[in-house]
Amino acid sequence: MTWFIFTLLCTFSWGLAELFYKKGARPDEKYSHLKIVVTVGFVFGLHAIFTLLTGDIGFNPKNILIYFPVALCYILSMALSYFGMRFIEESISDPIENTSGAICALLACVFLGEKIAAGSAIAIVLILIGILGIGYLDNTGTTDRKKVLGKKMAIVAFAMPFCYAIIDAIGSFLDIFYLDEVAQSPLIDITEDTIENVANTAYELTFFAVAIILLIFMKAKKVKFELPKQRDKVLAAIFETAGQFFYVFAMSGNGAIAAPIISSVCVVSLLLSRIFLKEKLTWKQYVFLFLVIIGIIIIGIIDGD
């Protein structure tokens, strides 16, 4: 049952990461989203260096360039997510972002000719209904975000979780070509045992490089940024990295059961946001949110099979 422990650790690590991401994404701090990217990038960089020093993965530096399109999708999606967190409740943004799996399934269906199971189709419909409901309620009645942020910023802020879901889904879709089969992967000097570690290390090193570039940008803008003082951002980055570490062992042990459990991380995030961030939604919002969550879990179960 070791895989089950890793599955729970992964789920709660990513749930805690979302909590601290939200705490670190301050609406009154103009560059808070870039500060989070830098913090995550440096933690990822340290983890990548640790992997290279302690793991025998035969990493070829050329894989950083080869894997760059996928890494760029993941990094850009996360940066947009951090920006949206400044203005959108985590209870709303996280379930929307977790629909990336459903979007990836649709992309595989359209471009690769894969068939969607009846259960997955039902799940996608539930997700769509939930998202439409959330979108409608977000700009009506007591939850009208336009009154608080202004019309333009309300639209931009609410669009961020959707941008994350779409771009992250594109990254996951590209990963099919990179990670599905060793013989056909563009990555070089890889084996069945090292392909995932090689891809993850390339991703983390790319994130690290982006973090350095953004740090230079903020220094040029004279933005005050002292990494040791970014407690919430550092904790978010640590839990994000830890979740990724646990994920590998969880999926390698019993992926069919681990996948749907991990896909319920948005439930953990919802509960933590309610308890620690004191986020309060209307009962109608919760109804539509749970439709999205149910759809995500159904897809996780079917995908796990």
A few lines on this structure:
The protein is an all-alpha fold and 305 residues long. It is built from 13 helices and no strands. Helix 1 (2-24) crosses helix 12 (265-276), helix 2 crosses helix 11 and helix 5 runs antiparallel to helix 12 (265-276).
Indicate the proportion of strand residues.
under 5%
* Rg, alpha carbons: 19 Å
Kindly give the count of domains.
1
* Residue runs with pLDDT of under 50 for 5 or more positions: none
Number of helices: 13
Mean pLDDT across the residues is 86
Shape: globular
What separation lies between the terminal Cα atoms? 19 Å
Biggest sheet record: none
Q: Class by helix and strand content?
A: mainly alpha
Keywords:
305 residues; mainly alpha
Topology of helices and strands:
Blueprint: H1 2-24, H2 32-54, H3 62-66, H4 68-85, H5 90-97, H6 100-112, H7 118-138, H8 146-149, H9 151-179, H10 195-220, H11 231-262, H12 265-276, H13 283-304
Helix pairs in contact: 1-11, 1-12, 2-4, 2-10, 2-11, 4-9, 4-10, 5-9, 5-12, 5-13, 6-9, 7-13, 11-13
What does this structure look like?
- The chain has one domain.
- Helix content is about 75%, strand content about 0%.
- The chain is built from 13 helices and no strands.
